Each structure stands twice: as C-alpha cells, then as structure tokens.
Give the backbone structure.
Amino acid sequence: MGTHHQGSKTEILALDAYIKLMRAADSITARAHLILPAGVTLTQFAALEALYHLGPLFQSELAAKLLKSGGNLTLVVDNLERDGFVSRTRDPADRRFVKVELTSKGRRFIGALFPKIAAGLTREFSVLSSRDQLALARICKRLGVGRAAPVAG
C-alpha cells in the first residue's frame, strides 16, 4: 500500500518509496528483535556490536556511530554497565570524555550472540540477490547522506 496523497507525481513517488522503505525496515527490525535474548534492546546490541568490532570508544563516538543522542546512549550504557557487559572510565587527560569498553562477560555475550544475528539478517536479505543487496546498500547510503554530497558506490 502506497500513499493516498493527491499531490504531484514527484511527491507521490517520494512518499510511496518512503512508506515502503520504512515498512521494510520496521518489518526486518521486528524480526531481528525475535532473535535477541529477553531484556536486550536493538540499541544495546548495536552498542555491544560496535565495541566488539571496533574496540573501546568514547561514549560520544559510540553515540555518533549509532546515530543516538548522548542522553539516550547514556541510559543504554548505564544498563549495559549494570548488567556487567561494559565498563566506563573517564579520560585522565579530559574528564569530560568517558571511554566505554566491553568486559570479559560482555565480550563472551556478544561473541555468542553476533553470529545468530548475522545469520538471521542473512536469511532476511536472502530474498534479494547479491546484486540487489549491493544496489540497496548503495542506494541507502546515498539516501542517508542526502543532498549534502554525492556518494560513490
């Protein structure tokens, strides 16, 4: 189902594409939630995954990578720290900066969980050919950057 808007062809096309993009993203996100253990949010998973693959990050860097506000990420990290998955330390050179890193418990947890999520997302995207997945990634990147600058494939 697309838009019911009675505007120009350009508006209808953009709104229809937006609706389909958001429905697809919401649908995949809902199914990804089913793979996560009870009590773990997608944002918590994303934070753990970033720390797992990138190593310790300042909390502001982590927020930027996840496209989350500093306040939202503080709550996420508070909960991950409460559960023993991450630890935080203040930068001795500038105490405004807080470094977040996985604990050994957090590393074991995300190390066991990540392959399940990767497999689930691989199944979700298997409805698209490899070529379609590459095209979708390229289009999404261009759309995410917006009119700011052209993006090379």
Observations:
- The chain has two domains: 1-35, 36-148.
- Residues 9-35 form the longest helix (27 residues).
